[in-house]
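Try this one yourself first.
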């Protein structure tokens, strides 16, 4: 069992490294997307953000971090709505995406087991919704168990 725990801790360390890269890139891509005015470039950036988020979600699943993967899925769903033309790229959406990234960062790298403190309001037309990652109480790896 100690070997499985050691392996999981090694996998979580690799996940954190990769997650840090993905989260930094996602933040930068969102800033670029906010500034971009050309429609074709915006579509390309939305697709790039969507794929990065999908990759982070898959990596979280690979190390059995279900809440992180669910948070990624929530953000991925918003991006999918943009891709389908069901949601506009508006300030409110960008705020929510940035707060979602902040929540994922707190969930993955956490501060002494404190939950992420940044609630965000629901987007227009939605009911009240907790922030992505709200349920996480400890940084990744402190309560994680080996995949079964």
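Now uncover the answer:
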């Amino acid at each position: 069992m100690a070997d499985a725990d050691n392996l999981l801790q090694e996998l979580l360390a690799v996940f954190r490294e990769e997650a840090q890269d993905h989260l930094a890139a996602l933040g930068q891509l969102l800033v670029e997307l906010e500034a971009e005015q050309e429609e074709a470039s915006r579509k390309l950036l939305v697709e790039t953000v969507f794929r990065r988020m999908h990759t982070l979600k898959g990596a979280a699943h690979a190390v059995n971090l279900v809440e992180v993967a669910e948070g990624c899925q929530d953000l991925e769903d918003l991006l999918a709505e943009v891709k389908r033309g069901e949601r506009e790229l508006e300030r409110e959406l960008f705020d929510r995406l940035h707060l979602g990234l902040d929540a994922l960062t707190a969930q993955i790298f956490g501060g002494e087991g404190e939950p992420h403190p940044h609630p965000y309001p629901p987007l227009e037309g939605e009911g009240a919704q907790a922030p992505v990652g709200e349920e996480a109480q400890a940084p990744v790896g402190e309560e994680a168990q080996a995949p079964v």
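Discussion: The chain has four helices and no strands. The CA atoms of residues 27 and 98 lie 7 Å apart.
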